[in-house]
Write a structure and sequence with these properties.
This protein has helices spanning about 1-15, 20-30, 30-45, 75-90, 95-105, 110-120, 135-150, 220, 245-250, 275-285, 295-310; strands spanning about 50, 60, 150-155, 165-175, 180-185, 190-195, 200-210, 235-240, 260, 265-270, 290. By secondary structure, it is α+β, with helices and mostly antiparallel strands. Pfam families: HTH_11, WCX, WYL.
Length: about 325
Amino acid sequence: MKLERLLSIIILLLNRRLVQAKELAERFEVSVRTIYRDIEVINGAGIPIVTYQGTNGGIGLMEGYRLDHNVLTNDELADIVTALRSISTSYGNEHQLRLLEKIHSVVPPAYSEDFQHKTNSVLIDYSPWDGNERLRPKLQLLKEAVDKCLIARFIYSNAEGEITYRTVEPYILILKGRQWYLQAYCLEKEQFRLFKLKRMKELEIDLGRIFIRRELPIQERDTGQNPCEPSQVTEIVLRFHADSRHLAEEWFGIEGLVPAEDGSWQVKKAYPEDDWLYRFILGLGHHAEVLEPPHLRDIIASRAEQVAKIYSRAIST
């Protein structure tokens, strides 16, 4: 990731007087042009980096400059380590491990014990319970495609089960809701699309085909927001039985529960209405009941009947 690379370059320059741009490019597996763009970003952040020409030249920090507490404090370095360790639970590589080692190396010995305590007090584990070993090869391939602007191809199965062959320009890898997505420009659809990695198969990148990055449309830049308009979501009301309060709290939080006179609990929430919502409600089993809207209640009842019919059939021996 770019932030990881920038921090690694800064820490490397703190420990070495000069580094060749070609060496940095090989270390981080990017082009020399990308390294020079990174240097511009670091300079823009207020850390003066100078390029020296000639046989013994290279890239280095301005003479006499040191990264002091006005740039990164020990607590801020601890926050960076915590973030990197958390990211590594779902997306880890050797670069991150080397960066963690470098950050630890610049921490003053007198602060080492306190630093260890702070970096081990919080861990956000993004990995699923069943692991993500099957996803790691896809992540590595797509990261290479994103970094080097390489065309990617794969077979994709959408939420409706439709199978298509896609050729895309990969832009961003996104981890959202414990699921990995790729934001890419689809050459078949001629627009930006979001692809779930679990729905991809036969992924390959074209090492001989480089694309020029397009400017992301404004609506595609904030990937953390819900892409649905208010008119596209359905407000639902669920009733949880009294003895199922713990499940309701787990999904919606204590503050989201409203007590009813009969001892049950109600939750009001707005969701995009699609197949995911139906599966989510059915996954709550007998603990929850849809009160509103009526049409959603009918859909869940119909699907529950279909499930019941499957299990009412005698298993042939």
